[in-house]
Design a protein that fits this description.
Elements (H helix, E strand, L loop, with lengths): L1 E8 L2 E7 L5 E5 L6 E7 L2 E6 L12 E6 L4 E10 L5 E12 L2 H7 L3 H18 L3 H5 L3 H18 L4 E12 L5 H26 L1
Antiparallel strand pairs: 1-2, 2-3, 4-5, 4-6, 7-8, 8-9
Helix pairs in contact: 2-4
């Protein structure tokens, strides 16, 4: 299949191509609200074009359609070691877009795979610098913000052309193997606080 043109008509995006039998055919391009095309000769960028009528010399140019509006999502779950040497099971979600189509196509072989690896690295670094209580409770939002900043710095360093939009800590909990022991520790802390409050009330009464 040889792509001839990509254009917009009646709020729909279409791709015009030449099939193996030599006929010109047209297909709707789903989920593309706005897109750019990259023309490259021997991996050297010629130009970036938007939708519309463009002449594509056969053989000379290779065209790659890049959706720069679609928000992609990556999820990752892993056991992480905290600063106070506890293990937590963390699930993170990352929403991102292609910001620079040139870098996305030409500067790295698989930008999305690089994001997946960078996500784990950033998450492991930030959780490893946090105590367990923060990772499980009120510190989750701060951890998410720090992961986002560190992840974006990794992506910029790798020249991926990706922009991180949102990072969420979807879940964080002790591993199933130690959940019962963790619940016992929480209950003991709650009992200690309750006993202290009752003693203070009695002393003041």
């Amino acid at each position: 299949m040889s792509i001839i043109n990509v254009f917009t008509k009646k709020n729909m995006n279409y791709m015009q191509f030449k099939s193996k039998d030599g006929r010109h055919r047209m297909l709707p391009v789903d989920s593309m609200v706005w897109f750019k095309e990259i023309s490259s000769n021997n991996a050297v960028l010629d130009e970036i074009k938007g939708p519309g009528l463009h002449w594509n010399p056969p053989i000379v140019d290779k065209w790659t359609i890049v959706d720069v509006v679609r928000v992609k999502q990556h999820g990752h779950t892993a056991l992480m070691l905290t600063k106070d040497e506890n293990i937590v099971d963390v699930t993170v979600s990352v929403q991102y877009q292609i910001e620079d189509p040139k870098k996305y196509v030409l500067e790295i072989s698989d930008a999305d795979a690089s994001l997946a690896q960078a996500t784990e690295s950033a998450l492991r670094h930030v959780v490893g610098s946090s105590i367990m209580d923060d990772a499980l409770t009120v510190g989750r939002e701060i951890i998410a913000q720090e992961v986002k900043a560190r992840l974006q710095s990794y992506l910029n360093k790798y020249q991926t052309g990706l922009q991180v939009l949102i990072v969420n800590i979807e879940d964080s909990s002790p591993p199933n193997q130690v959940q019962a022991s963790f619940d016992d520790v929480i209950k003991a802390r709650e009992d200690e606080v309750r006993a202290r409050n009752e003693a203070e009330t009695y002393a003041n009464g």
